[in-house]
Amino acid sequence: MSRAISLRQVSKSYTRGVSVVDRLSLDVAPGEFLVLLGPSGCGKSTVLRMIAGLTDPTEGQVRLDGAYANHLEPADRDMAMIFQNFALYPTMNGRDNIGFPLRIETPG
């Protein structure tokens, strides 16, 4: 099932005020295909990490299906992220690699 993704004025800054993403707004409809294209270090992976819940935005809102999602843990977002270097789980196919984080349980 696909989800609507909305970013509203999302920013991410790290130590010493280094801004990686600055007030990005975008909407992705369910089932829509989106490509983030840019040079190394421009913030593409940071945007994906904020959508997946692996990195918190410094400012702005991440919305999933219209609902505020900044506070949601990655496991509660019903999505996965795969990296360019397909070597995390070399014994798994693409589908299994993407689905693996959704199947594991958090200890505790």
Care to describe what's here?
By secondary structure, this protein is an alpha+beta fold. It has one domain: Rossmann fold (3-Layer(aba) Sandwich). It is built from two helices and four strands; from the N terminus they run ββαββα. It has helices at residues 44-52, 94-103; strands at residues 5-13, 19-28, 59-64, 67-68. It has a four-stranded antiparallel sheet. The model has no long low-confidence stretch (mean pLDDT 87).
Number of helices: 2
CATH topology: Rossmann fold
From the 3D coordinates, which CATH architecture would you assign? Answer: 3-Layer(aba) Sandwich
H/E series = EEHEEH
**Sheet with the most strands: spatial strand order:** 2-1-3-4
Distance between the termini: 28 Å
Low confidence ranges: none
Helix % is: 10-25%
- Principal-axes shape call: globular
Main pleated sheet: 4 strands, antiparallel
- Please identify which CATH superfamily we are dealing with: P-loop containing nucleotide triphosphate hydrolases
How many domains, in number, for the residues? Answer: 1
SS class: alpha+beta
Mean residue pLDDT: 87
Would you report the number of β strands? 4
CATH class: Alpha Beta
Report the C-alpha radius of gyration, rounded.
14 Å
Residue share in β-strands: 25-35%
